[in-house]
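step: validate -> pass
step: tokenize input -> pass
step: predict -> running
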Amino acid sequence: MRVALLVLIFVAAAIAFTDVEKWTTFKITHNKVYKNIKEHNHRFEIFKKNLIRIKEQNHKYETGKSTYNFGITKFADLTAEEFLSRFKSGRSPINTLSKPKNTANNDEAKGNIFDTSDDLPDQYDWTRAGAVTPIRDDPDCSACTAESVVAAVESAEFIKTNNLVQRSPKQLEDCIPFTPDDCWVCLDKDLTYSRDVGIMSDDDYPWKFEDQDCQFDNINVTTPLIHISDWRYVTEGDEKELQRTVYLEGPVVVAIDVTIDFQLYVDGEYLYVFLFV
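step: predict -> pass
step: emit ->
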């Protein structure tokens, strides 16, 4: 009886130690520092609950009941409610009925992409062609639509000129007044500004993690601004059109209506995605 009891104690201790190891690695990897021991312990309890979520979701994936995996992300010390509150950026949920109608959203403006054959590659990586700038991390999603638009413009500029220039999402964030519109409207505003005003280089209008007034009139521009001529939306749910657009025209802007599952997502086919250019 004494031996059995000791074995059970050792097994329980090993399980607990595994959680502690994961917690320690998590804090080191993501530079997590908490204000006091109470906050530290509170976050550890949340972390352990998220480990259970990860295990349950990955079991669904392994048994064919889900198409994506969970893992320990930098958000693993947050509750689902905290994650949604912090990272949905204050904007309304995406509403497909509010998608703006612009002059390029018609069959004529779509050009020749529908005149091609179905002989398209299953995949095409524009990063290998040198058309994609490094990934930007927007910690609180305050400039998510601006960064998405700028990334697409950077790629379009490269495809047209063979010159990859990092452009300024900070310019769009500062110079377009924030409103709690949904993502369709915010993207439309960013695209309209990019067409009518143009986007400076990131060197001329660098990123700062602070609120500031628009500096457009105060900057000595060293790199010419880039303007887009227009834009259009990919038909929702039409993967063939998306395939043709990516291959024949270039990278597209993607908006994701964030759910709690996105907090711990690491790989796989994540559903509920809205696509537009």
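step: describe -> The helical segments are 2-29, 37-62, 80-87, 144-161, 169-175, 183-196, 239-248.
step: cleanup -> pass
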